[in-house]
Sequence to fold (103 residues):
Amino acid sequence: MTKLEAVVKACEDKIAKDIVTIPIDPGLAIADYFVIATGNSRNQTQAIADEVEKVMNEMGFEHRGIEGYREGNWILLDFSDIIVHIFTTEDREYYDLERLWSK
Fold:
């Protein structure tokens, strides 16, 4: 299982909705992929983030940073080549990252 597949599966295991992977243009040097997922509540977004972090740690990957965990509306996990965005429904609709980053 690839690192990207493991992130997606961890999201699925915590019943995340509308999981999307977006390849990032190599010239931007931000990351290789964004993974965007939605949770029904702040508790669920935190549970999804916890599961992603657990699975990545088990595979030997630690995050470089985590933002927004306490609030839980938009949690960002930075694994260097993969950046995971976990939103509540309202925040995902508001920020609409798919529109901004999709080609």
